[in-house]
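User: Structure tokens for both sequences below?

Assistant:
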Amino acid sequence: MTTEEVIGAIAAVLTTSSFLPQAIKVLRTRDTGAISLTMYVLFTAGVTLWGVYGLMTWQWSIIIANGITVVLAATILTMKVASVVSAGRNPRRATGN
């Protein structure tokens, strides 16, 4: 393994690990109220594109890290969209009343 690959693998572990506590909290509580829908759309799209880039360049650290992150981010994004849609049908839920 080259120095570049080691650095890439460490970076992949660190960035994916940093995302896990927030993802676990949202998955456990199902509370997406403090999450920006726009941010999560952009984040999920960006992570997906990083994964595609990893596939195009055969960089396993990028492929694996972004594969894990995109699954978690897409799950949370789906929960957020469902919450927004549900709140649109029930205005009281949107305000927490």
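Moving on to the next sequence.
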Amino acid sequence: MKVNNTIVISIGQAGNQIAASFWKTICQEHGIDPLTGQTAQGQQPRGNWSAFFSKLGESSSGSFVPRAIMVDLEPAVIDHVKSNSGSLFNPANLISRTEGAGGNFAVGYLGAGREVLPEVMGRLDTEIDKCDNVGGVIVLHATGGGTGSGFGALLIESIKEKHPEIPVLSCAVLPSPQVSSVVTEPYNTVFTLNTLRRSADACLIFDNEALFELAHRKWSIESPTVDDLNLLITEALAGLTASMRFSGFLTVEISLRELLTNLVPQPSLHFLMCAFAPLTPPDRSKFEEMGIEEMIRSLFDNGSVFAACSPMEGRFLSTAVLYRGIMDDKPQADSALAAMREQLPLTYWIPTAFKIGYVEQSGISHRKSMVLLANNTEIARVLDRICANFDKLWQRKAFANWYLNEGMSEEQINSLRASAQELIQSYQVAEESGAKAKVQDSASDRPRSAASASMEDSRSGSMSLRDLVDRRR
């Protein structure tokens, strides 16, 4: 069976900083030198290395090259990657320009981004040609800056237009005033949401608001830096991709396509959140190991999720728990996860919404760790926060000229804001329908007259989610 090959595209300052941290981590996990791409004594890398690496040369002394493309409209971060990664990356795949996007979505989407797009798509086609079996594309980007939002949206749309069969997962960092660098972040994020909603197959949200709080509270860092937040994201991404990169006695390779199939019940409901356990400070991880039951409780705690919301107060549409590391307590893990499932506010029209995966290969920092991926209706709270900040700016047309001067119109901007509201409402409707189903299930135990049963069924029992969304609109 062919291994699924995954290509990682990183965009903008945040996307490329995360990518640099991510590639260093998974090189170490596979036994590949993060500066040369080679292995000790010419050995084969650990696991399904071809999922994320291609091999350069046929001899045992050949090097392993990440399936990576890095793009930025200004040179600083790409230059930093070049000077700190040795000969690991293909230099043709490190693409930058000189002007930058100035924190403006419209520049990345309508201006300079259009100029660099052919080169990036050309490099993507080259990487696809190197693959035996393309399993998907992961896009790392932030929605607050101009390149990550504007060019990120443009590239995702272009990939899906040219290669509609390839799954695209957006890993999007949402802005927070705590670590804000661009005053127009709410504009850029709302504009990007339309593309993430319509073109990406799924979007994994990393909310800086929550990440800042986690680093402050769990790692006892007084003023967390971007590097601290990126380290949290790297932990989650390494855990998320472990099932694509390693297989063994207890698990087979899980492709990106398979993962998304289990997590996305309907095309419009594909925004995911995640959590990681144990959230032990990196310098103490090998000295403070959590028990399996404590780890699972931590994973589902509202204060551990990488999004500023409370998942236990929403509805879980779908859930995947990926456990990696030493399997001496697998029966205990199975039992604890089964007990946790009974406590979750699941959505009753998706009865098989809880998946568990096991990977025997430990991560770099933890002997045992877990990643939670959840499609939860509370994501609407995160998006609503962004939209509220957008409205504060747009009501006064603050900084609107930045976008209007680059070719956007007020009509387009209002349409993009309406698209974001439709997304929020879709999740609100899913939450309401899940709650209604529970009420109906409990009510079905009571005797009903034929007339009342008919009336209740016509009102809601036979109504699909699509009907509910249409009626809400």
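User: Anything stand out in the second?

Assistant: The longest strand covers residues 316-325.
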